[in-house]
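FORM 7B - TANDEM STRUCTURE REPORT

SECTION 1: FIRST PROTEIN
SEQUENCE AND TOKENS:
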Amino acid sequence: MNQAGQESEKALRAELERARENEARWVAMSPGTSAEAEEFALWAKIANLRRSEVQRLEELVKRNRMTGGPASTDTNPRGR
């Protein structure tokens, strides 16, 4: 792996670690079963977004490792 690839993987791993930490903190802040349904639904949506971010970064790290170079952060090349 070249220098740019190593730096890219290091940056991706750091971002992945931050995303995992954010996800863990959010899960720990669960409103519990006594929370209002609307509050819990919002919490669950945000938890799903945090999980999706972790999965996206895991996929980028995997691609970067497989190709030996920087991985594109665009996981939807056709646009949104």
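SECTION 2: SECOND PROTEIN
SEQUENCE AND TOKENS:
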Amino acid sequence: MADCLLAEKRHRHNQNISERRRAGFPKLGHFSSHKIDQLQELYVENHGCVLYPGWISASAYKPTDESFDTIALHHTQLHDALKARREELGDVALTKDLQYLCDAMDVPLPLIPFSREAPAEYQLFTSMVQQFLRKRSGARHKQMIHQPKRKSPPLKTMIPQGKEQLRRLALSILSMLLHCLVLFQHRCHKPCMLHPMSSTVA
């Protein structure tokens, strides 16, 4: 389920970015790309041209060995160690979630504890995760402490300081007010015009 949610999020993110930054990419208003593929095929069959020239159907892409969402990030030494450990254990009963992780990452055993008969593995895994989180939070805290404080720029006041500047400001405000007053009087005394579609006055 988590992998399906990741795939859906990736699909929507790619489509949103394509609508913003890819020239000619259509704005569909939904994320059901398979329906657009079917619509393109029907449009070509009936009209001999495509409906969305900037759209590339999923069938036009070449399949590759790439994997997305849940992927392996471990090195070859750890992979060889997992293989050796799997041979030592023999048949191991894994849950569906753990088996999916193994298949997605192409590993013989999951990288997290899986045996309820070995509580020490769970304790060790929990302590290692907590240790990692403490180191990470401590590094962030040190970075925040040693980061030099930024000096805030001086505030620029909008009020002029000199008497001459104050006088000019007052005159400009007064001139603007007089101009607005003249426009207001002109609009109030302007005669009313009849609408062309209204009845004429005899």
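SECTION 3: OBSERVATIONS ON SECOND PROTEIN
Residues 26 and 52 are 7 Å apart (CA to CA).
The chain has a mean pLDDT of 75.

SECTION 4: SIGNATURE
Preparer initials: ____
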